[in-house]
């Protein structure tokens, strides 16, 4: 709702493709979820968590934030004030990401092994992609029959439905406070947190937007070189810090502050191997992210109607995505991980290249549905394999924070490039853009020989696996 559907909404309102690309940078927010992920491992939501437990407490707070952010996007759906549209989209991205951090930590704690993770990841991705497809196709269909305000309100109500289901669940503790009291207390605290986050986001956004405009940046500025320079900065900073981290004692991370310990432990465990590892995860999901950025504007430019797009995003995408996730989970459970990763990368590349065929083919519903199906199948397969792989890299001591870092970092480079997608598209066209994005995803295979040879260090105080 803050990415694919929003880019389509902006395209239908005639917003320039370069500006639409800039909106893709909202999806960068989940990349930095490691910055607040340790808070979810360490702190609880007052009221909710005392009754339902820490993980479910954070999920309930996040769902309130998601609902209110989407309602705000509904009532600004004319996109006459783009900074306001961006503000509410950012808030939606923040609460969606917080929900993912809580759910991922819970999932990894439930099933720490590869064989156990594969079916849980498949089930998780079925739910995730089903919701994504339902929101995308549902919103587009409602917008086609009515308007974007009703579309966002409809999905907001649907997104809120799990909240009462969670509220009806039994408590986690044997001696919880009263359910009604916990619900009222948690809701009041959550609304205060949501309001404070909205005010803080608005203030920070105003400062950043003023700085960017003051520096002379416009839609005509070629941001691609700047984006690539920014993308290299984390690797440079980590390379500088690694010699010192590498010399630390094995128990040093455990004695560090909670917001540092998970990441220092991860870097210590993989030592210099963390650099090719992070490069690999940065390229592996490249095709998935870049497809999501410009696929809907491409469909709009190719002349497809909202009804056709709704069907492609709905029945077609859901069926093919679920099939891809199922096969990806099976590959991750039954095949050597290196083989599963190669299959996923190839599927992702094909999922991008199919849009080159769509762009040159005579527009028809059949062409659109085939392209959408191949895209969703390939990226569903790739996503399932990748989630299992990342889950195997984390330490049982810091599952939520480390998974948040790895999964967030995996999208840093793709989402940075995604923000420049409009600029790139104007230079090389839609066909060149999707050829390039598929090739970048496939390039991850070149790093596999280095990545699969990595053997993490084990602290002497830890039992051997």
UniProtKB/TrEMBL annotation:
It is a multi-pass membrane protein. GO terms for cellular component: membrane. The chain crosses the membrane at residues 17-36, 57-76, 82-102, 123-144, 150-170, 182-206, 226-245, 266-284, 309-331, 338-360, 403-421, 433-452. InterPro entries: AmpG_permease/AT-1, MFS_trans_sf. The keyword Phosphoprotein does not apply. Its main location: membrane. SUPFAM superfamilies: MFS general substrate transporter (SSF103473). Keywords: Membrane, Transmembrane, Transmembrane helix, Transport. It is found in: Membrane. This is Permease. It comes from Sandarakinorhabdus fusca.
């Amino acid at each position: 709702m803050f990415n694919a559907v929003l880019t389509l909404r902006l395209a239908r309102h005639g917003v320039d493709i370069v500006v639409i690309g800039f909106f893709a940078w909202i999806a960068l927010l989940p990349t930095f979820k490691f910055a607040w992920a340790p808070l979810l491992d360490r702190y609880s939501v007052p009221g909710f968590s005392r009754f339902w437990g820490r993980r479910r407490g954070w999920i309930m707070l996040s769902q309130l934030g998601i609902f209110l952010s989407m309602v705000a996007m509904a009532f600004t759906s004319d996109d006459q004030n783009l900074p306001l549209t961006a503000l509410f989209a950012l808030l939606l991205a923040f609460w969606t990401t917080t929900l993912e951090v809580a759910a991922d930590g819970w999932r990894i704690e439930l099933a720490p092994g590869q064989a156990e993770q594969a079916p849980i990841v498949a089930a998780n991705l079925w739910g995730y992609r089903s919701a994504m497809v339902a929101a995308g196709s549902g919103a587009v269909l409602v917008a086609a029959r009515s308007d974007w305000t009703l579309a966002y309100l409809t999905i907001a109500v649907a997104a809120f439905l799990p909240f009462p289901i969670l509220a009806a669940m039994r408590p986690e503790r044997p001696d919880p406070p009263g359910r009604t009291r916990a619900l009222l207390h948690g809701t009041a605290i959550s609304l205060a947190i949501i309001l404070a986050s909205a005010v803080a986001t608005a203030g920070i956004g105003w400062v950043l937007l003023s700085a960017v405009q003051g520096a002379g940046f416009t839609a005509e500025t070629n941001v691609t070189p700047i984006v690539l320079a920014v993308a290299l900065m984390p690797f440079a900073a980590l390379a500088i810090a690694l010699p010192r981290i590498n010399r630390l004692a094995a128990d040093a991370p455990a004695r560090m502050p909670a917001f540092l310990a998970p990441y220092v432990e991860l870097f210590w465990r993989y030592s210099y191997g963390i650099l090719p590892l992070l490069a690999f995860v940065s390229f592996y999901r490249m095709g998935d992210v870049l497809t999501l950025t410009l696929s809907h504007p491409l469909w709009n430019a190719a002349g497809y109607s909202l009804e056709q797009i709704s069907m492609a995003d709905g029945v077609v995408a859901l069926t093919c995505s679920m099939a891809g996730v199922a096969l990806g989970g099976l590959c991750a459970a039954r095949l050597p991980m290196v083989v599963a990763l190669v299959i996923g990368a190839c599927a992702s590349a094909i999922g991008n290249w199919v849009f080159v065929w769509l762009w040159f083919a005579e527009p028809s519903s059949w062409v659109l549905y085939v392209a959408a199906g191949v895209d969703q199948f390939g990226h569903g397969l790739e996503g399932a394999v990748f989630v299992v792989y990342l889950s195997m890299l984390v330490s049982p001591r810091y599952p939520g924070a480390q998974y948040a870092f790895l999964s967030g970092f995996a999208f840093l480079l793709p989402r940075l490039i995604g923000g420049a997608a409009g600029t790139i598209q104007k230079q090389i066209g839609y066909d060149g853009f999707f050829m390039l994005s598929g090739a970048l995803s496939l390039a991850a295979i070149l790093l596999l020989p280095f990545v699969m040879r990595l053997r993490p260090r084990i602290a002497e105080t830890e039992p051997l696996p």
